[in-house]
Amino acid sequence: MPNRNADLVVTGGRIYTMDRRQPVVSALAVKSGRIVAVGDGAAVGPLTGPDTRIVDLKGATVTPGIVDVHTHMMMGGQAELFELRISPTSSFATLLERIEAAAANTPEGGWIIGGQWGSDLIGKLNTAESLAALDAATRGRPVMLRDDTYHNRWVNSEAMRRAGVSGANKDPEKGSIGRDPATGQPTGVMIESAAGIVERAVAQSGHFTEEMDRAAMAQSISTLNSFGVTAFLDAAAMQPILAALKGLDDRGELTAWALSAMPAVEPSFMFGIAGDELIAQRDRYRSAHAKPNYVKVFLDGVPGARTAAFHEPYVADPVLGCCFRGSTIVTVPDLVRWVGKCEKLGLGVKIHCAGDAAVSQALDAIDVVRSFNGPTGIIHHIAHASYIAPQDIPRFAELGVAADLSPFLWYPTSFLEGHKQTMGETRALRFWPNQDLLAAGALLAGGSDWPVMPNPDPWNGMEGLVTRRNPDGEFPGVALWLEQAIDIVTALEIFTINSARAIGMADTVGSLEIGKSADFIVLDRDVLETPSDEIADTRVSTTYFEGRVVYERA
Amino acid sequence: MSEPDAAVPVTLLTGFLGSGKTTVLNRLLRRPDMKGALVVVNEFGEVGLDHLLIEASEERFALLDNGCVCCTVRGDLVETLKDIDRRSAAGELPPVRRVLIETTGLADPAPILHTLMAEPQLSARYRLGEVVVTVDAVNGLATLQRHVEAARQAAVADRLLVTKTDLVNPADIAPIERRLRQLAPAAEIAFAVEGDIGSGDVAFEGGGSEGAHAERLAAALARAEAAIAHHAHDSGCGPECGRGGRHHHHDEHAHAHHGIQSYSFVIDKPVDWPAFAQWLDYIAVLKGEDLLRMKGIVNVAGEPERPCVIHGVQHVFHPPVRLEAWPSDDRRTRLVFIVRDIPRQTIERTLIKFAAVNAAEASGPARLTAA
């Protein structure tokens, strides 16, 4: 007779299952990574044997593992493990000192990659003199340094040589090569798409090996594990990311469910094959826990840079004039083509929509596909669903589209201040109508956009959802559109079961039910009973992924 | 179109294996009005034109004793047609007045049609004429039922030639004709005896004024309307067709036709062209694979005297052509669809939703009626 005993039993806890039929239990049992019992001592007792590991929670609170529907993995791990970390507030002198020190530790000919320099330094860097200083500091080693927006780079002469950049180069489309005002020669400042010229050279140089990619990915996942995340969706997964996820899973080292969205078009900040060519290879990168089930479409930019597409014009601007509304990068018919194609392949589409017109167009395109092809179980995502025309709110539920709430900007931040400048205060403040979406039956899912946004901590996000006030103490006394606040149970649902539904994994993750993956986290407090302005202080003590401890707080 | 004859019409001749294509082609080439025709075949031998060959001038081109030229396609049809044009201009070939492309019996004609409709390198010199499909009276019904390729060939036809009619009882012709009208309601059906396609008025469409083209389209649309209405009647379907228990009958029917169905729509009110054009884009993108053929004439809002002609094969649509005048008294928008597994409701619902077809107007909502 096979051994029926559970591998692990946790008891004596306050376990929020996020299963509405049985919302609070005290014990659960795990076998082979799956939950085999949920309830009280009596429910797990018969499954407890001599070989069962028993964990007494001593009254601690447990929730399902967090599902983050919007991350950019690997970048964070790469930066932590292999890159020169410079604070964006560093002075030019400090910047050079740090680079010089890094060069001393870099073998001759090896790349030095790092960041981030403050974008306010750009004028200072964009001179022949500064380039000479950078060349002197690096002594022949190629260097590439990103700025704090991730859009621009500063590189040295050796890096330009390797990337084939010289005085003869013309500016690329949607970018420019910085030139010294006196000599006209390139300074190594690479603006917007010009950054790609050097990034591509780095990517092709083999600087990052597959082994390094896997280590960086493992590092990134371990960071997320420490915040309780046990499933995520990488929102722009290029080939190295897909390979790293699959590579880790093949080695039994993937400690989270890893969904990924393959970019339909090469993004401005990542390099390599994209679109059909990448999508065609998806099954090479599929494994038990790594699932390339989405395609990413960037429909517009960001409000602060006036690149998001709105129905109403931005505040008048000397360059863009009185009536600039931003524009979408992809037309509705092209979006229809993408959504239609993806549905045929069984893939969801995650559509970046920062402005309300982009949201409308994304919904329009999905509406077209639904009208022709009928319903499907595939859930598409409107990413950063934040500025939404009132008439579009009910359409999320009607079309079965998930609102990807990311990043954590539903409280006053410096971003919001930027939006006020470009959009005018009244409109800027109508940001994140979460309660309206909820009331209209929309599926809300939570995401961090880490590390594009520095904070992956979902508890910070949940506090913000509840209070609409900045959990870090900035902008004291100010709330953002308080009517849109939601309660903590809903916030927790958003970051667990709702996100699981949104990524098509609700039969496996998102709640603690028999048959589901034993992904759960032990918290240092009862998050449902914690004063709302302390939710962000919640710390994860232990993270379990498939019944294994993948993070334990020291 | 100021010079309708500037472009050489290209006729596509297809038909299932053994349906009598070659016999038809041989007969056709003997007709005096086929002078100046250039025949494109896959292989000389396969078509059995040997007795017409007088000299094989070189590998790919052969002059026939009736003055026609026969040419084999090797690889790319686009390159072949460009080559023909080049040689014709250089005087290496007699002037080409029309091109006949004969496909193999199993070929799906759609890719060839796409090439002719949408290849910009060809559009200046060639234009798509008719799609002529042979169906034999002896085995045709069984073949259509058994082979989806045969049904798809028939579904895209402008002209259906029923061959070998002399080998069957006249009574056996009616069922096949009925089946063909269901598969290709807009097509003209003719009957051939021993490959003789009969009277001279069965002219393979070639040249002719814009008015003549338009009249043929109007006739085709009228045929489709009648055929579909007749079919609905045959099936015991009245105006309520498609509802309740009768629906089942239709589904079975679709099954017997490999899911191929045809619909005809009439829209009374002028159509908002930008919305309609967008709807065409959408259906091409999302349903192109199953849209075997679609043609129509559109009464464009604001341009009541100048209807627009549309024509699509799968995901490829011919650029819409604006006519100078209506070809008949019927000035309603008429659309014919031959589809595989696209429910009628999908077309109707999306037309209403995205082509602004039933927008409430002062005189009442536009009527979208099934013929």
Please characterize this protein's 3D structure:
The complex is a heterodimer of chains A (554) and B (371). Chain A is an alpha/beta fold and 554 residues long. Chain A folds into two domains: 111-205, Diaminopimelate Epimerase, Chain A, domain 1, CATH 3.10.310.70; 210-545, Metal-dependent hydrolases (TIM Barrel, Alpha-Beta Barrel), CATH 3.20.20.140. In chain A, 32% of the residues lie in helices and 21% in strands. Chain A is built from 18 helices and 24 strands. In chain A, the strands form four sheets. An eight-stranded parallel β-sheet of chain A has the order 8-15-16-17-18-19-20-21. The longest helix of chain A has 18 residues, at 356-373. The mean pLDDT of chain A is 95. Chain B has 371 residues and is α/β, with parallel strands linked by helices. Chain B folds into two domains: 4-191, Rossmann fold; 212-370, Hypothetical Protein Yjia, Chain: A,domain 2. In chain B, 35% of the residues lie in helices and 23% in strands. In chain B, helix 6 (140-146) crosses helix 7 and helix 11 (273-287) packs antiparallel against helix 12 (344-354). In chain B, 39% of the residues are buried. Classes of the chains: A alpha/beta (554), B alpha/beta (371). Chains A and B meet through helix 11 and helix 12 of A and helix 11 and helix 12 of B.
Q: What are the key terms here?
A:
heterodimer, A: 554 residues, alpha/beta, Diaminopimelate Epimerase, Chain A, domain 1, TIM Barrel, 2 domains, 8-stranded parallel beta sheet, 6-stranded mixed beta sheet, 18 helices, globular, B: 371 residues, Rossmann fold, Hypothetical Protein Yjia, Chain: A,domain 2, 7-stranded antiparallel beta sheet, 16 strands, 35% helix, disordered N terminus
